[in-house]
Amino acid sequence: MEEIPIVVLNYNGLHLLKSYLDSVLNTEYPNEVVVVDNGSKDGSVEYLKSKGVKTISLDKNYGPSYARNVAIRTYKTKFMAFLDNDVEVPKEWLNPLVDVIKGEEKIAATQSVYTEWTWGDQPSEIPWFSTAAALTRRDVLERVGGFDEHYFFYWEDTELSWRLYRAGYKVLMVPKSRVYHEAHGTFKKLPSKFTSYLTMRNQLILLLTYYNKKQIVSNFIPLYMIRFLQSFKAPNRGAKLKAVLTLGKEIGYVMKKRSEIRKLTVNTDDRFLSYLGRDPFGFVELRSVAEGIRYKMSAKATV
């Protein structure tokens, strides 16, 4: 039975490692825990060495996408699990993920439940997996290009999931695997203006990359206008406006990425979009602005 690398990302998260890492080290399924540290200055690396945990130390914060890709390139295993450093897991958390992903070659990732889930106990297709707690086919991730380092942070696992769907794979939630996620433990360490900028920019370049020409006209343009108006809401108005107003600088990247996506695409039905709107994922407006407006109006009417 091949050991599965469990990759934990860390950036100045010493207090989180002290709270949650022991639970990861107690994982029942055969594994090797490896922490990829993004240039921490808070004693994290020294702590990990004192516990004998394998550590890949980067000289600065290159972002989660880069750090995960380092792990993907380092190992040659078939599977690789990912956890955030603010996740506590029961010892058996990995077993159900393994059982499901091994059941079908076209399953590229399986995810643990860490939020409210009301869709039963059976595995269910979802739009994207979160690297907060997921098992992936490492070889498939490497084959399709890994995480997009242009994103740095935020929406990068969504982009990879959409790419996997285009390449003919799928992503499943596995409700029998449940973990506790403090949520945004590392996100809080980054400057809020920077995260606001990335959140807005990355969503827009994601849509420009994957929408077809018809969708760009019918949905991206009105959604862009909505995001522009939303940028005037606090906090970090300037950062969000910068993301919207400087989008033109991303066109070169977008065109290159669209060309790369076309080369690996075997499935153009965009099942990814069909799963949006379903709790806990939301973002129905990415599928249809009109549908998103109706959804919000309906939600307000029931309050």
From TrEMBL:
InterPro entries: Glyco_trans_2-like, Nucleotide-diphossugar_trans. Residues 6-123, 127-190 form the Glycosyltransferase 2-like domain. Keywords: Glycosyltransferase, Transferase. It comes from the Archaea. One of its GO terms (molecular function) is glycosyltransferase activity. SUPFAM superfamilies: Nucleotide-diphospho-sugar transferases. The keyword Membrane does not apply. Belongs to the glycosyltransferase 2 family. This is Glycosyltransferase. It comes from Sulfuracidifex metallicus DSM 6482 = JCM 9184.
